[in-house]
Amino acid sequence: xxxxxxxxxxxxxxxxxxxxxxxxxxxxxxxxxxxxxxxxxxxxxxxxxxxxxxxxxxxxxxxxxxxxxxxxxxxxxxxxxxxxxxxxxxxxxxxxxxxxxxxxxxxxxxxxxxxxxxxxxxxxxxxxxxxxxxxxxxxxxxxxxxxxxxxxxxxxxxxxxxxxxxxxxxxxxxxxxxxxxxxxxxxxxxxxxxxxxxxxxxxxxxxxxxxxxxxxxxxxxxxxxxxxxxxxxxxxxxxxxxxxxxxxxxxxxxxxxxxxxxxxxxxxxxxxxxxxxxxxxxxxxxxxxxxxxxxxxxxxxxxxxxxxxxxxxxxxxxxxxxxxxxxxxxxxxxxxxxxxxxxxxxxxxxxxxxxxxxxxxxxxxxxxxxxxxxxxxxxxxxxxxxxxxxxxxxxxxxxxxxxxxxxxxxxx
Length: 412
Ligand code: TYD
What we know:
CATH topology of the largest domain: Rossmann fold
Distance between the termini: 47 Å
Helix content: 25-40%
Structural class: alpha/beta
Number of domains: 2
Oligomer: single chain
Bound molecules: thymidine-5'-diphosphate
Strand content: 15-25%
Largest sheet: 7 strands, mixed
Number of strands: 19
CATH class of the largest domain: Alpha Beta
Strand order of the largest sheet: 8-7-6-9-10-13-12
CATH superfamily of the largest domain: Vaccinia Virus protein VP39
Number of helices: 14
């Protein structure tokens, strides 16, 4: 594959009935943080816009950047967040209620990152195996005792894993499927890996929450699809999975956790019908909903720029809180640069000393906020707003205020 390709037909149903909405123009990759040296080089930018498939309802990007460019060195490490750890713990707990593992059982995590999720299953005394294409992350996982294969997951990878390790009792994929271009190959891979009585659990951000809560900044090159339950249920059912459980989660601004089994003729979960009806009521299968969304985002940008501009003319100092990928989308799309944000404070050591893609805003350890005491903190990682606000007690005591940009501009 070249640097990127243009999508002409829907990834799920093959229809060409695709409607374009929310065009970001040329955007740098949201996780492509830069070193000092890299600041002087030309930064790669790729088109970013959304398509709505009027046939099956899938929202998808119009462009797929080559995954080798995006995922071979990946800065995202979830274990830094308490919210994420709680979500992993709840997932492990749910699974523990449904199935018992023996020492020969096998749990596979696709997109296993630094191995954190699997450590919860290791404690249950089962075999574990991570699969992740990022070398930096799989090395970290190995060091913390989580065996990890450094590969992109697909059907071929699945076959070689089955040959070596046997079939899995549980296959996990949290925040992975949105990144996958060839969903059929991916899901066939899952099917190949999974034993006949095994469970496949996957989590992804829910497009219903994205639209209802203006989360436009979660749209970037890595996230190829934005799933509603209806298109998702179509594709899994074609591949002989049935959805046996559905849960809405608050993680990442709103996600779905879906539990699948290989089809055995049992009736699908009632929760699926309930959510599909809810999606219909929210207009998720209607192009007008997405056009209205794009309009709202334009308005949101104008409002935020107005508020920040007003503080600046009054001589206030503003910083960003959380150098999230979504923050890079927001700052680039709304044109909020180093002239407005002095720097961004972040908890991830990996990001310290680097600069944000596109806007080149410097990133510092979050402790800096406590002695630097700016006037305002724009919470770019709004999905962790509570966790972040709890941390900055000194800042608050001295009159510091938080600005939360999503779903509406709010000052706390
Ligand atoms: P993340 O949730 O990974 O979002 P994205 O997928 O958009 O990158 O981003 C959260 C960022 O916020 C990450 O860089 C860590 C940072 N962070 C803080 O700075 N302080 C905190 O208390 C928490 C929880 C996260």
